[in-house]
């Protein structure tokens, strides 16, 4: 769980993606040369001062500091063509 300093509120909503940086501690248990810094996580909001970022058991203990920045992830939306819509509509129209 990520908890912010007193008097600070986060702007995140459930499902948003954030990238973590400037965190002291939290080196990878498998590769100490790597850390949680620069990793992307989906947010699960607890309240205006706290949120979850998923499973962090693969990292050492948090020491202090850190920033979280909202990142935009692309969403692909696919629509049928106008021709496909017309064909579907004609099939559903009563005769």
Domain tally: 1
- Overall mean pLDDT stands at 92
- Tell me the helix content: 10-25%
CATH superfamily: Ubiquitin-activating enzyme E1, FCCH domain
Global geometry:
elongated
Compute the number of helices: 1
Secondary-structure content class: alpha+beta
List the defining traits of the structure above.
95 residues, alpha+beta, Elongation Factor Tu (Ef-tu), domain 3, three-stranded antiparallel beta sheet
Task: Describe, in plain words, how this protein is organized in 3D.
There is one protein chain. This protein is α+β, with helices and mostly antiparallel strands and 95 residues long. The protein has a single domain, classed as Elongation Factor Tu (Ef-tu), domain 3 (Beta Barrel). 12% of the residues lie in helices and 28% in strands. The protein is built from one helix and eight strands; from the N terminus they run ββββββββα. The strands form three sheets. A three-stranded antiparallel beta sheet has the order 1-6-5, with no helix packed on it. The longest helix has 11 residues.
Give a topology summary.
Blueprint: E1 2-3, E2 17-21, E3 24-25, E4 40-42, E5 44-47, E6 50-52, E7 62-64, E8 67-71, H1 82-92
Antiparallel strand pairs: 1-6, 2-4, 2-8, 3-7, 5-6
